[in-house]
Structure formats: C-alpha cells, structure tokens
Specification:
Chain A has about 300 residues and is an alpha/beta fold. The first copy, chain A, folds into 2 domains: about 170 residues, Rossmann fold; about 110 residues, Orthogonal Bundle (6-phosphogluconate dehydrogenase C-terminal fold). In chain A, strands 3-2-1-4-5-6 form a 6-stranded parallel beta sheet.
Chain lengths: ~300, ~300
C-alpha cells in the first residue's frame, strides 16, 4: 500500500450526509484502496455511481462487508441491530467495525453482543454535520476542525483503535477517547437537547392561530431562523437519537424545564435583576467557544 | 436639501449596535444634514467621536433633541420613560419621534402619554441585529434585506409615517405597517421566545456537575453553538424586552412548554412515530424561510 493508504477496502453502510462526505474524503486523499458503498435503495446507489464517490456499490449488506478491513455504519441508529445480524457471519478475519452514530452506549450493547470475537468494534462519533441529508449533500471538508469521539470498550485491540483514530485525524478532526456512557451525557446537552428544543419551538410557531406562517417566516431574522436550520435536520436520524439516548435526554430535559420555569417566574413577577444576571452569565460560555475556535 | 437628504437634523438617543449602524448608514448615504449622538456615558461619546460616525455628540438628552426634525431612541426599552420626560419640553415643533425597540405597544403607551401634541410618534422596529453590542459593533449594512415594522397609532400624520418608512427603505429594508399589539405577539414567537430558550439552555449546560464546561465548548458543533450565539446578546436590552412584553411572552412560553412536555412523553414511551411526524413537519417551515430569502 502507498503511504497514505490506511485501509485496503472500506465498506460504508449507508451513504447519506456523513457516509458520502467520508467517501469523498477517502477518495480525495487516497486513504483506502477501495471504497464499497451500501444503501437500502437502488436509487441511492445509482446516485452514488452518478456522483462517482465510491469504487463499487452493493445493495446487499453482507456482500458489501465481504473482504473489507474497515466497515463503517453510517445509517440511522435504528438500523444497527438488523445490520449487525446481517453482517456478523460475513466479516473478514480481524476486520474493524465502526460507526458514526450520535449515541454510543447502545452501539457497544447492540453490536458488541452479536459481532464475532475475531473483529474489533471501535464506535466513533464525528461531531460535525449540516441540516442537509443524502449522498449529494456530503463534502470532503465536513469534518475539518471539529472533534471526533471514539468510545471503544476497555479490552479493545489498541492497533484497531489507533487505525480508526488515524482515519479521523486525516479528515482534519481532533480525536478524543471517552467512556460511551459519558459521551451520551455530554452529547445530550451539546447536541440532542438543542435539536429537541429547536424542533419544538418551530412546531409551536407552526401551530399558532393568531400569527400567520408568513409572518413567522418574514420576521425570522429576530432569532427564530437559527432554530429552523437545526429543526430541518434528518427526521429519521433524530428520531433514533432520542429513542436510543432516552435516559440522558430526559435528565437534561428535566433540568432545562426546571430552569425555564424559574425564568418564566422571573418574567411574570418582573424580576429584572434575576433576568439580567442570567443573561450576563451566558455570555461567558460564548466567549469560551470563540476562544476554543469552535464559532 | 440635496436629493438624498431626508432629514435636516437627526438625533440618535443611544448609540449601540443599532444606533451606530444607523449613524454609519445615514452618514454614508447622506440621508441627513446633521447627526447628533447622545449616550449616558462620556466614554461612549468619546468612542463615537473617535469612530467619526456622528457630526456632534451631546451628553444631555434635552440638548441632543433640540432642533432635530427626527429623534430616534436607540436605547433599551427601560430607558424610554425617563427619556420621554427629559425631552418632551425640548422637541422642535413638528418633530418626528421614533425608536428601534423590540416591543411596540409599550412605546405608544409610555411615550404617547407624555409627548406634546405638536410632535409625531412613529414607533419602528428594524428586525435585524447581531450578538455584539456597543458603537464599535455597528455597520451600515446591518439592516439590508431584512424587514422593518412600523406601528404608528391610527391618527398619526401620514407624512411623518412616510418619512420614517423612507429612511428604513433607504437602509435596504422592506417595511411593513402593523398594529402594535400584533407586532408584540409575532415577535414574541419569532424573536423573544427563541432568545429566552437560548439563554436558558446555555444556563442549564453551565450548571451541570457531570459534564465539564470544556466538554460543552469542545462539542458545541453538534447544535449547541447556534444557541450560544443568540445567548450572547445584550443582557440589558433583553431584560427590558421580557419585562415589557410579558403577556405575549408568557403566552408563547406556555404553548412551548406544553408542546415540549408532549415530546418528552413521546421520548419516555419510545413513541417513534410521534417523534418522526413532528421532526418531518418542521422541515417545511425551513423551506419557507429559504424560499423567502431570509436564510
């Protein structure tokens, strides 16, 4: 293999925003000898061929993983159990199985239970995305400058972890190792709760009888616009995130509602000092994000 | 007056993000013969002189409005009663008094009650902004392409309304006339509630014992980042918005919480269909905003 080549054959199970961005990146930088893309619909695979972002396509997931030294699941979390069952007897000896899902404890639980002992399970979460979906929405620079979190179990082969880490490093990501349960708690607040809130407020606005849809759209520049962008994210992916990170999301949601009730009370009783103190405190977090180069 | 000149002398009461953006625009396009800037602190006025964005400055608000044919209040809503009392006996005959505040019924109520009958009150709300504050944060193009809402009372002089409308039109804004109470309801959902929610979630994240501040900042790309931008907005301005649009905000907040409780229940009971339906519906609003050119 040439110097840049990290894997001989990479199988991407699911080729939407993340999968197709990864395919573009691997191809552009020559990180694998061969990329095979799998999707559940022939229309998606036809699109992949048209875009020229994979070396081959396979509608059957067992065919897709055959001979691959790296398999990355890039489909919604709800598809994992069926994928695990379909690939477990077809994986190459010593293959690495990874994913890009937004919830991680369930990956170790669901896939860890069915995969054969000769493969290495290295769950990953590249924390990057846009509100667009599908193979045509991807781009090779999607990951650049963001963080990727790996959550391998304690006994995972170190070389397998290193190889997955190196792939994401080459994608321009900073890579962290984290306990899967802790990952799910952190992401519940930095990603899952914000999405739920955004979906919710856009729904609330949509239901108003006294304010027309056209008014909501015209005056969205006042703050609402940022929420609509988030609330346009892929519905299936996000449904599965909430179904699979229930406990952490409910915990964060409970705290959020408690705090919101306190703010509501401050508004009702015209407690300007409480509002001012709260609004001042939140500025510091923004400064932290700007200083960390994430803005 | 030259063709572009709309007013002989414009007095800007308050010279933060909005006031200084307006000053820059008026100066750049020659829309007024003279701009006088007022602020409560000498340090701010020194900054205005240094930036060269006004023709003169006045620390005394009564001096600032003397001889002005247009007075625009660009300070937080909480300052309006004191400003009204301070300027009422010093306004030129036939002067127009306007503002840029995010709540409008209170403007007609507070200022309408104290201003002399020889002046014309034309409240305005240019729906544009950033999370930055102060005279150095302004820029002439801030308003370009957004909407401005005027909420004059029913008996307001039509020429005065036309002249204020023309000023904002020259700023690149599309201008709407609206009933003040209805404005406050529309903005409660498109702007005030989103800000409250953003402030709240950033506060919730800041209070977590199990997730560190550095983790929140590192993984903000997952959705949280957009909320921190909104939650960095000026605390005094926003405190005053909530204190002065209490009823409409509490009404929207009640609906929001009700909807969020339904989503929470769907998560707790793993009702994937309910989640999927909600997340699909919100995509349509985003498409509406993109088609309206507001994204």
């Amino acid at each position: 293999m040439a110097d840049d080549v990290l894997f001989e054959r990479v199988a991407l199970i699911g080729i939407g925003l993340i999968g197709s961005s990864l395919a573009r990146l691997i191809k552009r930088d020559g990180l694998a000898g061969h990329i095979v893309a799998n999707a559940r619909s022939q229309a998606t695979l036809d699109k992949v061929v048209e875009l020229g972002i994979a070396d081959s396509v396979a509608i059957n997931v067992a065919d897709a993983v055959a001979g691959a030294d790296l398999v990355i699941i890039c489909s919604p979390l709800g598809t994992y159990p069926a994928i695990g069952a379909a690939i477990k007897d077809h994986l190459a000896d010593g293959a690495i199985v990874s994913d890009v899902g937004s919830v991680k404890a369930m990956v170790l639980r669901e896939l860890g239970a069915v995969l054969p002992s000769h493969v290495h399970l290295v769950p990953a979460h590249p924390v990057a995305g846009t509100e667009h979906s599908g193979p045509e929405a991807g781009f090779a620079d999607l990951f650049d400058g963001h963080w990727c979190i790996l959550t391998p179990g304690p006994d995972t082969d170190a070389t397998a972890v290193y190889r997955v880490k190196e792939l994401w490093r080459r994608a321009g990501m900073k890579v962290d190792l984290m306990d899967a349960e802790h990952h799910d708690l952190v992401l519940a607040v930095t990603s899952h709760l914000p999405h739920l809130i955004a979906y919710n407020i856009v729904g609330t606005a949509d239901d108003l009888e006294t304010v027309t849809k056209s008014e909501v759209i015209k005056y969205a520049a006042g703050g609402f616009r940022d929420f609509t962008r988030i609330a346009a994210s892929d519905p299936v992916m996000w449904r599965d995130v909430f179904l699979n990170n229930r406990e952490a999301v409910l915990e964060m949601l409970g705290r959020f509602t408690e705090d919101l009730t306190a703010l509501q009370r401050a508004i009702r009783w015209s407690d300007g000092d409480a509002l001012h103190e709260m609004f001042t405190r939140t500025r510091a977090i923004r400064r932290g994000i700007i200083e960390a180069g994430q803005a």
